[in-house]
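S1.2 Input.
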Amino acid sequence: MDRDTLDPSLVRTEILDAVVDLAHQLRERHQVARCLTLGLSFSGGSSVSRSRTLAEPSAFTDDLRDAAMAVFERLGLERARVRGVSVRLEHLTDAAGTAQQLSLDPGRENSRRLDPVVDRLNARFGPGTVTRATLAHRRHSA
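S1.3 Output.
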């Protein structure tokens, strides 16, 4: 982040930005993550990190985003001056050797099918061509 912030929506945007990049990297490497760790540093020099084990290993942006946001919300920060955000994926394994639970949720299935399409479009037309609306201003100016 460019500066300290008290705005939780800005912190969420930073988390989302990191998750989108990491999820893409996982899919490029044909890997999945079993655990996500969110780290926050504060203006006073202190920091905190918390981990969350995913229900199933995943490289899907929405799964990783949901885990990261759940960790952030669980911290219950109020009026904390956040200086930096880090997201780390752990317990990586080969995606081909990992079983995936079938879902009866059409929204989740559509989201899973969307990630590879976004990856292909960005590979063809340049990074950030297709991204989350929240991140569009960042990708365009980068």
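S1.4 Remarks. The mean pLDDT is 88.
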